[in-house]
Amino acid sequence: xxxxxxxxxxxxxxxxxxxxxxxxxxxxxxxxxxxxxxxxxxxxxxxxxxxxxxxxxxxxxxxxxxxxxxxxxxxxxxxxxxxxxxxxxxxxxxxxxxxxxxxxxxxxxxxxxxxxxxxxxxxxxxxxxxxxxxxxxxxxxxxxxxxxxxxxxxxxxxxxxxxxxxxxxxxxxxxxxxxxxxxxxxxxxxxxxxxxxxxxxxxxxxxxxxxxxxxxxxxxxxxxxxxxxxxxxxxxxxxxxxxxxxxxxxxxxxxxxxxxxxxxxxxxxxxxxxxxxxxxxxxxxxxxxxxxxxxxxxxxxxxxxxxxxxxxxxxxxxxxxxxxxxxxxxxxxxxxxxxxxxxxxxxxxxxxxxxxxxxxxxxxxxxxxxxxxxxxxxxxxxxxxxxxxxxxxxxxxxxxxxxxxxxxxxxxxxxxxxxxxxxxxxxxxxxxxxxxxxxxxxxxxxxxxxxxxxxxxxxxxxxxxxxxxxxxxxxxxxxxxxxxxxxxxxxxxxxxxxxxxxxxxxxxxxxxxxxxxxxxxxxxxxxxxxxxxxxxxxxxxxxxxxxxxxxxxxxxxxxxxxxxxxxxxxxxxxxxxxxxxxxxxxxxxxxxxxxx
Length: 596
Description:
Blueprint (H helix, E strand, L loop, with lengths): L6 H5 L9 H16 L1 H6 L2 H11 L4 H14 L13 H20 L7 H7 L3 H10 L6 H14 L8 H10 L22 H13 L12 H8 L5 H10 L16 H5 L12 H7 L3 H14 L4 E8 L2 E10 L3 E6 L11 E3 L6 E3 H11 L2 H19 L3 H14 L4 H14 L2 H14 L4 H17 L3 H16 L3 H17 L3 H14 L6 H15 L3 H18 L4 H17 L3 H12 L3
Antiparallel strand pairs: 1-2, 2-3, 4-5
Helix pairs in contact: 2-4, 4-5, 4-6, 5-6, 6-8, 6-18, 7-9, 9-10, 10-12, 13-16, 18-19, 18-20, 19-20, 20-21, 21-22, 22-23, 23-24, 24-25, 25-26, 25-27, 26-27, 26-28, 27-28, 28-29
């Protein structure tokens, strides 16, 4: 994972490579021009061109120093200076150029970037912003650039039109692709990365106008959920030939459900090579249905994801796809009875988990893409000013970003970092309260914010207030998000455990188990944790008494079967054994022995 770096840190590192004569002359001329005519230089692209020259000579430090000096000059050389509103646009251009060089220095390790491709990639301030807005600290910037370079050389005729597609391929395929799920039975089809072949496939699809969503309507982020296709290109071509591009909500159920596999608990693919044609003819379980639906969608240019979640009857997989350009249908194959509070998918760009709730958050943001681009630029400026300890201007830049797009979380984080750096805990508390209001529609964020508030209040010695915030959050989530209810309770339990308050920790766990009693298989992991923790805390006898009563609740929640009864009795046996209750242990073993 690439580390996020700072302009200040990069500026302190001595250059190590020899400069070429041509790039040196161009660099010196640009540097002089910027120092003598900073305002004009910002308008005519000289700041950006200086970054390109620095990359051409494989050395970024001197230019970063020039940008740092440029920014300080706009603040009249005062670290406590206010942000001059009339100079913000100029400062943004210097910040973007400096951020590019900082990332280049630490990620590319001075690997040469070809001038022609670099000049194309950063041919305007808008294109530079697109690059900075797209890449994340999780991307391999050097590898991503070399994919861009490869495709730039491959398609000079269409590269301008398909810049976003090139960017999407770069940030997805900059690192090895994980399989779309882990139940292929060891029979995943071997494939080559073949980045040019993949680019040609999707470019031709979009150019043919046969794609289900027009290319011009897709952001780079949406395109990443199309081009992540870790299969042979022949699989995508099979889809184009055999699967009609319509009725995406029915693709999941097109695969006949293999009931026999479920009954035998055969969760890994048993049917030879894991290919779409085989799945279509043989049928499969939920994860195969979701895999088929996702690849069919992506092959036709529709962003799609596999979701997995824990329901009342155990783990399950389903399918989500972009429906138009403003919303997603995220519940195809998601059964209502099982009450999947949250589904998780793999973000194709970062290889990190993201929830369906977070995806909805991203969809809402995409409706105001221009505002978020502006907010992102202001946040980069705030980040640089904070790192150079220009706190007044940094706070103003971060607040300006929030004013433009209140749901751009990076700006809130920068403000929080400033208050932490300054030791202003009360100001940080006020900030978190405002953030909770701004993000009130998004439960995952609100829970995290409330936890941070509670932690801060405890640091200030206001334990009662902290507990009230957590209880309020638990009460709110218990009505709609049992996964967040478990998370909040677990935080409380861990806090009591670390403080040595073992009885409180046990009672908190029992309270959680009672609240979750109707959640079927979801409680299995909780019971396992409960028995482990109570043994560690010396609460075994209390746990055995609780489990004797709670086992009846589990029976009411689970489907009646010998399999489920065995799970319940094994938990009960474990509780008795932990408590060294031989009499009840023997009785429970006898009951288990009578099951088929």
